[in-house]
Design brief:
about 250 residues; alpha/beta; 5-stranded mixed sheet; 13 strands; about 30% helix; elongated
Length: about 250
C-alpha cells in the first residue's frame, strides 16, 4: 500500500465550509491526526483510526503523521481554518526538513481551508478589503516583545489587522497589551470587530470603536479584526468595509 499525507483545513466550523477536496481526502484516509477538538469534527467509520492529541505537541504530531505515511497509511492531519495559517502545515514541513530523507520523498499535499479571519470578514462585510496582516497574539512560540513590535509596526503602516488567539485563561493580558499599543498609535474611532465562533451556532459578532474595545470581549474562539484608518461602517447597515482605493 502506498502511503500519502494530506494536511487539511476544516474551515471555521460549519461543515458546509469544508471544501470538497478536503472531504474527499478524509473519505480516503486510514488515519486522521490533530488537536483534540479538530479530530472530534471527523466522523468515525470502519477503517479509519482517529489520533487526537494535545495542542502543544505539534512536532510530535507531525512526526507521527509522517511515520504513518511512510509505513503506507493514508494520513490526514487536520487543522481548523487553513492548515497554512498558524496551523499544522508549517510543523509538518519543519519535521520533513529535519527528519530522515525518506520523509522528503513522501506524497505530501496541503489542502486549503477557509480561515477564521476570512469567515469573520465575510460575515461583517469587507474589513480586509485592502492591505491587511494577521498576527497571532499567543506567546507560546515567540516572545511578547516580538508580538508588541509587530503590532506597533502594523498599526504604523496602517494595515487592517486580524488578531488570532487573542485571549485565554493562561494568557489574559495579550489583547490588553495589543489594544494599548493600538490606542497609542491609531485614532480612537477606527472599528474593531470581535467575531466569535463564526459559522457555528455560537456565532456572535460585535463591532465597537477602538476606544471602547476591551480584552474581555474576546476569548480563544474569537478572531479580532481592527480596521485601518479608512475602514468604515456602511450607513444604515451592519456592514463595515475598507475601500480598495485606500492609499
Amino acid at each position: 500500500m502506498t502511503g500519502w499525507l494530506a494536511i487539511a483545513g476544516l474551515g471555521p466550523g460549519d461543515d458546509a465550509l469544508v471544501t470538497p477536496e478536503v472531504t474527499a481526502a478524509l473519505r480516503g484516509a486510514t488515519d486522521v491526526i490533530g488537536y483534540i477538538p479538530y479530530v472530534a469534527r471527523v466522523a468515525a467509520r470502519d477503517g479509519l483510526t482517529l489520533h487526537p492529541s494535545d495542542n502543544r505537541v505539534e512536532m510530535d504530531r507531525a512526526r507521527h503523521a509522517l511515520g504513518l505515511a511512510l509505513a503506507g497509511h493514508r494520513v490526514v492531519v487536520v487543522s481548523s481554518g487553513d492548515p497554512g495559517v498558524f496551523a499544522m502545515a508549517a510543523a509538518v514541513f519543519e519535521a520533513i526538513e529535519h527528519g530522515p530523507p525518506a520523509w522528503a520523498a513522501l506524497d505530501v499535499r496541503v489542502l486549503p481551508g477557509i480561515t477564521a479571519m476570512l469567515a469573520a470578514s465575510a460575515r461583517a462585510g469587507a474589513p480586509l478589503g485592502h492591505d491587511f496582516c494577521a498576527i497571532n497574539l499567543s506567546d507560546n512560540l515567540k516572545p511578547q516583545a516580538t508580538i508588541d513590535r509587530r503590532v506597533r509596526l502594523a498599526a504604523e503602516a496602517d494595515f487592517a489587522i486580524a488578531f488570532y488567539n487573542p485571549r485565554s485563561r493562561s494568557r489574559p493580558d495579550g489583547l490588553i497589551a495589543a489594544l494599548a499599543i493600538l490606542r497609542d498609535t491609531c485614532a480612537d474611532q477606527r472599528p474593531v470587530l470581535f467575531a466569535r465562533a463564526v459559522s457555528t451556532p455560537d456565532e456572535h459578532l460585535h463591532i465597537v470603536a477602538l476606544r471602547d474595545a476591551r480584552a474581555d470581549m474576546a476569548d480563544m474562539r474569537t478572531v479580532v479584526i481592527v480596521g485601518s484608518s479608512r475602514t468604515r461602517m456602511v450607513p444604515g447597515t451592519r456592514f463595515i468595509y475598507t475601500p480598495r482605493s485606500a492609499s
